[in-house]
TrEMBL record:
Domain GPI inositol-deacylase PGAP1-like alpha/beta: 340-391
Gene3D superfamilies cross-referenced by the UniProt entry: alpha/beta hydrolase
Protein name: PGAP1-like domain protein
Residue ranges, annotated region (Disordered): 512-537
Organism: Bifidobacterium biavatii DSM 23969
Xref: SUPFAM superfamilies: alpha/beta-Hydrolases
Biased composition (Basic and acidic residues): 526-537
One term of GO molecular function: hydrolase activity, acting on ester bonds
Length: 537
């Protein structure tokens, strides 16, 4: 059975000293040079086998007879067949060693982000070029994008044997940030069309455009859903979000909660959409720390995590961000849980959940001690998260959603980004997701090189599917962790320190939108006014 695997690259995080970085780079170059020598040896052995074959073919053959006893043999023939086979085997062995050394060099480069600056520069150049094209010639840019997407769909579908439109995302992934930036300029008006080219580190105009669109769509959304948010604590009839002491375990809990509330898996908890989890951990010194688990968009008619709420929390205006229903809902859940102002908090979210986590970290920094934000598939590059908060972002290069901020994430000591690239593999142990909903990647491989070079996506479809599913982000993080990256290890350790200790409680909160307060639920009086007080002053 065919499957999918993810290869990760790493940017940002705590950098190496210049001397250490150069030492790793020198080692990578040495491995490349030695690999080239082994490939040359492979070519030499292959040439020797060919020469022997030609020599054998050019000989004048005579009848071979077994000499009688006492007769002297005047000539003998070389064992050409054995020699040719031996040379061919040596050629293959040398080529294999060269490939392994190339793999080692590539792993070293990815693990230590040795060419991060060059890769970032190329990506900015491409984004800037696509943005300029989208501004100057939008019709031709749209036509070209359609043609590239169509070619990708046709090629991928032909290889797969059936129509699959997802390949359109894969073929255009290199242009997505630039296209989003260009579109935002048109939304905001042409009067500032030249400015996006001046700074490609920020998704200029994207957050501005999101705020403008949110102002238009919010009245429509309020008319449909109502603007009254009710946040209630709900009881789970089964364990969904378990105790966690690592990023990988927290990502698995996020996936379990996301898929349970959507009905993709059934753990028997009876939790439904619009639900987040708040966990309190007790440190050895008796102090408390908190982990907030926030799934993504569910699209339900009365959920604060509907589709249009994404626009509000991507706005450049902090008041507008915090009036977004999903951000209000999580802030209210944190208030009801009783999180103290000085108690360490980590937030982990997928898609819209990650945007909410970034919004909370950016706009409630003076109310809570937000120490770490973990996002998966979330466009959060434009959120003004304080440098005191560590951010770990996982993005798949062709999922589109993560590119909707129109910019790469900041590459700083406190902000680490893991980018995954999915490829097909004919070796998989994917099987089914286990009965308890477990979907942790990392079952092991027969070859050390494959285990480090790529990580299997557990439970992936045999056909190409959108890589926005959390299982792809889980595989991307596993692959990045296996590389032994100093930056990844530092972020992992920081996250672990926050939730170090014993899990004391897991509480679930559900948000519901309505036109009038729900009579079945009692909320703290003026909770919305309290949440927004800092912006009204």
């Amino acid at each position: 059975m065919m499957g999918w695997q993810v290869t990760s690259t790493i940017s940002g995080g705590q950098p190496y000293a210049v001397a250490d970085r150069e030492e790793y780079a020198s080692l990578a170059r040495l491995l490349d040079d030695v690999a080239a020598d082994w490939r040359a040896a492979s070519a030499a052995w292959s040439a020797a086998a060919l020469e022997l074959a030609q020599h054998q073919a050019s000989l004048t053959w005579c009848s071979s007879a077994t000499p009688d006893e006492g007769t002297t043999v005047s000539h003998s023939s070389l064992p050409y067949g054995a020699l040719i086979q031996r040379c061919s085997d040596l050629s293959v062995d040398c080529a294999t060693i060269g490939e392994e050394l190339d793999t080692l060099s590539a792993l070293l480069v990815r693990a230590h982000s040795l060419y991060e600056d060059n890769e970032a520069w190329v990506r900015r150049l491409v984004t800037m070029t696509v943005t300029a094209a989208a501004i100057v010639a939008p019709q031709y840019t749209a036509l070209g994008t359609y043609a590239v997407a169509k070619a990708g769909i046709l090629t991928g579908s032909a290889a797969e044997g059936k129509d699959n439109r997802i390949y359109g995302l894969t073929s255009t992934q290199w242009a997505q940030e630039g296209l989003v930036r260009g579109a935002s300029v048109w939304v905001n008006g042409l009067r500032r069309a030249s400015l996006p080219l001046l700074n490609t580190d920020q998704g200029y105009g994207v957050d501005d455009a999101a705020g403008f669109l949110a102002a238009v769509t919010k009245p429509i959304q309020d008319a449909k859903q109502g603007d009254v948010l009710t946040v209630s604590e709900v009881m789970a009839e089964a364990v969904v979000v378990k105790e966690s002491h690592s990023v990988a375990e927290s990502l698995e809990n996020l996936r379990r909660l996301a898929e349970e509330r959507l009905g993709t898996i059934d753990l028997g908890s009876k939790l439904i959409y619009g639900t987040v989890a708040v966990q309190r951990y007790r440190h050895a010194d008796g102090s408390s720390a908190w982990l907030i688990t926030i799934p993504g968009t569910d699209g339900e008619h009365d959920s604060p995590f509907d589709w249009l709420q994404n626009l509000e929390i991507m706005s450049d205006d902090p008041v507008q961000r915090m009036t977004g229903d999903s951000a209000r809902m999580v802030a209210e859940a944190m208030r009801q849980a009783g999180i103290g102002a000085d108690e360490p908090v980590a937030l982990i979210g997928h898609s819209q959940g990650g945007i909410v986590a970034a919004t909370i970290a950016a706009d409630l920094a003076d109310q809570y001690n937000i120490q770490h934000v973990m996002t998966a598939g979330s466009p959060v590059a434009n959120h003004p998260i304080p440098s005191t908060t560590w951010v770990t972002s996982i993005e798949m290069d062709d999922e589109l959603v993560a590119a909707l901020d129109g910019a790469p994430n900041p590459s700083t000591d406190n902000w680490l980004t893991i980018r995954g690239h999915a490829t097909r593999t004919d070796v998989t142990s994917q099987g089914e997701v286990s009965s308890d909903g477990s979907c942790l990647p990392g079952n092991g491989f027969s070859s050390w090189s494959r285990g480090f070079a790529a990580e299997e996506v557990k439970g992936a479809s045999e056909d190409k599917e959108i890589t926005h599913w959390l299982k792809y982000h889980q595989a991307a993080y596993k692959n990045a962790s296996d590389l032994g990256s100093h930056a990844v290890n530092a972020h992992e350790e920081h996250f672990r320190r926050i939730i170090d200790g014993t899990l004391e409680e897991t509480r679930y909160y559900q948000g519901t939108m309505s036109h009038t307060p729900l009579p079945s639920t009692v909320m703290a009086p003026d909770s919305d006014r309290i949440d927004m007080q800092r912006f009204d002053e």
